[in-house]
Structures are given as C-alpha cells and as structure tokens.
Design a protein that fits this description.
Elements (H helix, E strand, L loop, with lengths): L1 H7 L18 H5 L4 E6 L5 H14 L3 E6 L12
Parallel strand pairs: 1-2
Length: 81
C-alpha cells in the first residue's frame, strides 16, 4: 500500500485530506451523501478503512447498507459476473 500511496500522492501531507479518503470528510459533508452500499472484503488491506467509513456514515445518519464477505479478496465483486 505504501508503494501505491507514494505514486498517488504528490506529498505525504495530502494523505490526510478528505479528497484522498472519505474517512477524512467532515460530518457535514458526509450527511449530504446519498444512500450508500458498502461491500467489504474480509481479506482486503482496505477493509479497516472501509469499516471506519461505514461507521462514519452511520454516525452521520446516512442511510447505508454494509455487507462484509469474510475470506474474500479485494476483487470479489468482479467474480459476481
């Protein structure tokens, strides 16, 4: 993940901006989001961030459905056909 972050962000300080991750968005911004579906692959390196984002949406009162697929990899949704 560090390799990807290095390629994606021009500066390390940009990693904590909401444009880099919705987990850094303000509660006011999150409240404006539409109903959201979050699929979490249990073996994905991003799963902790996805869980955090789902929790932030719940706290902001956004209608949200979260499904976690234990043992699944990041590409699990590609397998759905």
């Amino acid at each position: 993940m560090e390799w990807y972050r290095h390629k994606y962000f021009a500066e390390v300080s940009h990693r904590g901006e909401w444009t880099a991750s919705p987990c850094f968005a303000s509660k006011e911004a999150l409240k404006r989001l539409p109903p959201t579906f979050i699929a979490i692959a249990g073996c994905d390196l991003l799963a902790p961030e996805e869980r955090r984002f789902a929790g932030l949406l719940e706290e902001a009162g956004v209608k949200m459905e979260r499904r976690e697929y234990e043992g699944a990899m990041h590409t699990v949704l590609m397998l759905a056909g």
